[in-house]
Each structure stands twice: as structure tokens, then as C-alpha cells.
Automatic annotation (TrEMBL):
Record's keyword terms, sorted: Cyclin
Residue span(s) of domain Cyclin-like: 60-166, 179-265
Compositionally biased tracts (Acidic residues): 321-330
BP GO annotations: regulation of transcription by RNA polymerase II
Protein name: RNA polymerase II holoenzyme cyclin-like subunit
Similarity remark: Belongs to the cyclin family. Cyclin C subfamily.
Source species taxonomy: Eukaryota, Fungi, Dikarya, Ascomycota, Pezizomycotina
UniProt entry tagged with the keyword Transmembrane: no
Pfam families for the chain: Cyclin_N
Native source organism of the sequence: Lophiostoma macrostomum CBS 122681
Chain segments annotated as transmembrane: none
Any one Gene Ontology molecular-function term assigned to this protein's record: cyclin-dependent protein serine/threonine kinase regulator activity
Annotated stretches, region: Disordered: 1-22, 292-330
Length: 330
């Protein structure tokens, strides 16, 4: 298949780097791979695999409740960010004198906060009913003010709101990558390319199930989604003044490819319902030759040679497909 070359943008203002204040605020919530292996839960003795499983179950809970409430994906993404940030400062493992919040409690509260931050509020009753039905895996369960579960979840969310806010230091400013990704598409005049747009959106939606929001800035995740989608759609993005598109967007190629490799781990471990491999599996960059010959999204000028690309080791991560059944403790 021949890659489609995109005309060089003309008459448009080049993308500006993020404002220093916004970049600094987001930077405090970015961690290294080693730091993700030293979270409070892990330091309290919880196995890494168990902690990651609980993170995925909490995020799945957010997604399922959000779909039941018909919330936009941007709100669910913000809730997932709050959930993951909270767990970088609080443990899920009980110890003497400390009783942790259940991961469903944290997830429900994070979603409650996100609906207010993103101005997609739902009535408390609607949120509580959805939480109970998802937690008990019964979408038709009768839940009203006469049931014990209703008041337990209502009181839990209202109590946990202050706890989560304090853990987040009342820093509720989140830059969802969706708008950034769409602005990148518009810059290259590709916002109406359905295949490219849908693939980018799917990548961002799936990234909520990983810890990408703790490893990379929102702009990097947006660029990674465009990189992956461009490869899938066989589209090459043009250079400007001898610079590749990722430099024009103020992103490092190394970070883009590491983010893609982390997502590939998830896609490889989660085959489609028909048993076939995901269409995103080919995103991995196994060696320099393959990267240069097969995965370029950079449309080069005739006199501009390819730059050698250094391959990073993929970040290990996996995905759990389900949420667990049960009620909250106490």
C-alpha cells in the first residue's frame, strides 16, 4: 500500500508550545517507570501485579458507570486521571491505624469530581444508581431511596470527595488529550479524514486503561495517538523547514514511540472478540531498520535524509477486562 502524502500546511500559524504555567502544573504529576513501582500500595507490600489489576478494575468501573450515564469520553478520561493520581499518594492496602478506600469508592468519587470539572453534571441519584448496578453487575437492579445500597453509596461518595480533593491538593486542572489531538488534525487539514480521526480517538480512549497519564504529558499522548493512526492509515505528515512533524508539535519522538509500545502491550494481550490480533499490534518498533522502512509518519523533503532512530525498550503493562462483583466494606 502506498502512503498518502499530505500537503505542507500554508497560511497557518505554527503550533505554540504549551504555556509554562500549564506545563509546570502537569509536570508535577508525571512520574518515572521506577516511581510507578514504588507507589504507596506497593511500598505497603502489595504485589505490583495486584496493584495494576486494581487500577484497571477501578478504571473499568469509571468507564462502565460513565457509559450508563452517557457521559462524554473527555469526562471519563479526566476521571481516570484523578483516579490514577490519587493512587500515587494513597495506599490500597490496609495497615495498623489505616483503612484504605475501596478502589470502587475512589473511582466513583473521581467520576463525581470529573463531572463537575468538565461541566457534565448528573444528579446524585443517577450516579448512585449507576454505581450500585455496575458494582453488583446487575444493570436492572432496583435502586432507590428505600434501599440500603443507595444510602451507602451516596454517603461514601460525599465523604470521599474531601479525601480525594485533599490528596489531589485541589489541583483539578487536567488537559484532556482529545482537543489537542483534534487541533493537530486541523493543523494538517485532516479533521475530516474519518479513518485517521477514528483511529486516533480509539487510541486515546484505550489509553485510559493504562498509566500513560502518569508517564507522559497530555500533548505527548495526543501526538502518540496521531502517530499510531497515521501509520494505520498510511499517511505521511509533512516537514516544515526541515523539521519532522513531531518537532513542529513540540514533542519528542522517543516519548511518542515509548507510549505506543506501552499501548501495544495492551493490544497484544487483549485480542478481538473473534480471536484475531488487534489492528494496532503492528505499532511496536522492534529494530531500527523496521522503524525506518515501515513506521515513518514523516514526509521528508527530497534533500532531507532520514535520521537514524533509536529504539526504546517497551514498557511492560497489561489490561484486565473486568470489574469485580461485590459491595463496599463498611
Amino acid at each position: 500500500m502506498v502512503s498518502t502524502a499530505i500537503p505542507r500546511p500554508t497560511g497557518r500559524e505554527p503550533p505554540r508550545p504549551p504555556p509554562p504555567a500549564v506545563e509546570q502544573a502537569e509536570k508535577q504529576w508525571i512520574f518515572s517507570d521506577d516511581e510507578l513501582l514504588q507507589t504507596p500500595s506497593i511500598m505497603d507490600g502489595m504485589p505490583v501485579e495486584e496493584e495494576q489489576t486494581l487500577r484497571r478494575k477501578g478504571t473499568n468501573f469509571i468507564l462502565q458507570v460513565g457509559m450508563m450515564l452517557k457521559l462524554p469520553q473527555t469526562t471519563l478520561s479526566t476521571a481516570a486521571v484523578f483516579f490514577n493520581r490519587y493512587l500515587m499518594r494513597n495506599s490500597l492496602k490496609a495497615r495498623a491505624g489505616y483503612k484504605p478506600l475501596h478502589h470502587y469508592q475512589i473511582a466513583a468519587t473521581a467520576l463525581f469530581l470529573a463531572t463537575k470539572v468538565e461541566e457534565n453534571c448528573r444528579k446524585m441519584r443517577e450516579l448512585v444508581v449507576a454505581c450500585v448496578r455496575v458494582a453488583l453487575k446487575d444493570p436492572n437492579k432496583l435502586v432507590d431511596e428505600q434501599t440500603k445500597d443507595f444510602w451507602k453509596w451516596r454517603d461514601t461518595i460525599l465523604y470521599s470527595e474531601d479525601v480525594v480533593l485533599e490528596s489531589l491538593c485541589f489541583d483539578l486542572s487536567v488537559e484532556p488529550p482529545y482537543q489537542t489531538m483534534y487541533n493537530m488534525l486541523k493543523y494538517y487539514g485532516l479533521e475530516h479524514n474519518k479513518k485517521l480521526r477514528n483511529a486516533s480517538w480509539a487510541f486515546l480512549s484505550d489509553s485510559c486503561l493504562t498509566q500513560l497519564c502518569l508517564l507522559y504529558k497530555s500533548r505527548t499522548i495526543a501526538a502518540a495517538s496521531l502517530y499510531a493512526a497515521a501509520r494505520l492509515a498510511d499517511i505521511e505528515l509533512p516537514e516544515e523547514d526541515g523539521k519532522p512533524w513531531w518537532e513542529i508539535q513540540h514533542i519528542k519522538l522517543r516519548d511518542i514511540r515509548r507510549a505506543c509500545n506501552l499501548m501495544v502491550n495492551m493490544y497484544e494481550e487483549s485480542p478481538n472478540k473473534d480471536g484475531e490480533a488487534s489492528i494496532y499490534v503492528g505499532l511496536r518498533t522492534p529494530d531500527e531498520w523496521f522503524e525506518r522502512r515501515q513506521s515513518l509518519t514523516r514526509q521528508q523533503t527530497p534533500d532531507q535524509p532520514s535520521e537514524p532512530m533509536q529504539v526504546d525498550q517497551p514498557v511492560a503493562n497489561g489490561v484486565d477486562d473486568g470489574s469485580e462483583e461485590g459491595e463496599l466494606d463498611g
